[in-house]
Amino acid sequence: MAAMESARRSSRPATGDRPVGSGGRRGARTPAETTPEGFGRFSAENPVHSAFAAVGRTPLLELELSFRGRPRRIYAKAESLNLTGSIKDRMAAWVLADAWERGAWRPGHRIVEASSGNTAIALAALGRAQGSPVRIFMPSWMSSERVKILSAFGVDLVRVSEAEGGFVGSVARAAECALREPDTFLSDQFANPANVEAHACTTGAEIVRQLDSLGLKADVFVAGVGTGGTIMGVGRALRERSPRVRVHPLEPAESPILTQGVHSGHHRIQGISDEFIPAVVNLAALDRPVAVHDGDAILAARELARQLGLGVGISSGANLIGALLMQEELGAEAVAVTVFADSHKKYLSTDLFKEEPAAADWIAPGLQFHSWRAIPCPAGLPGN
Predict the structure, then answer these.
(1) Which helix (H) or strand (E) holds 251?
(2) Domains detected in the chain
(3) pTM recorded for the entire structure
């Protein structure tokens, strides 16, 4: 972890005064023009500007492992190194900066969202820094660590039970709150195009530059779908660099909503497959969904910690397995990329830290990890 922190610090320049874009979605520049810090499109007067240096420019981890008896290499963004410890900091900072430039939000105005945890935490930290109260509607079965962290940020947390509508009910109640109360901004993560832009112009653009520094281009990208911003945004950036790259959304095998189109079953991969297909997700623009068992994801996340010292959340374990499965189809030398969305610290009370019996056809029990190294974001790039 110390090596990851060092790589992140050495790759991050001071923010300084970056070129001012038109702001928001109007006249948006392509990821290539805004890499790696796409936040450079926002004005220096933007109140969120001071947070940009603490978000993004994370290392790309190069993992060396053996899978089915053959050596493999997988690339994964280390997103726990963002401000509040997850990839959602990128979207939260972008959405608030975009809203300020459009006049949709001002410091001190309430921020409202429906979230399973990481987005809520990111909005809480950034919102409270601007004097904005934050109200979050969250399904009642999310981990106790999430609840305690949100409480520490002073969030007005409304927990929504399954009988009250669960995640769908949380989204509806957030929208009703925004309509009912004055000076309230609904960040609307599941439908806001700024969510996709955040990942196209930061996460995806960074991956392109980091792979370029190794003389590589991505062959396949896999990521679990929560809001859909990561898969759509990173996919856009990678396809601008290499149009033939495969972009696969990932879902729990226990709740294959992307495949079936309707919510069915329960799963333990918090942060993805939230009972509906988000509006920002265009399945027609993606390759077929990849299904991973939640227990397999749990075991993979555990092995990353036990064998490599990489403490990641359950969705990261799922993303690793999905990337390996798609790499298997393309060949062992294919450049497979994914994201490690957060750390294991928000899952201490979950099944990630309990006994998990393995099924015969699961992937994780057969993985042997050898080493990792951190690829920093190259300095001095356009948009800095």
Answers:
(1) strand 246-252
(2) 2-86+192-375 (3.40.50.1100), 89-186 (3.40.50.1100)
(3) 0.88
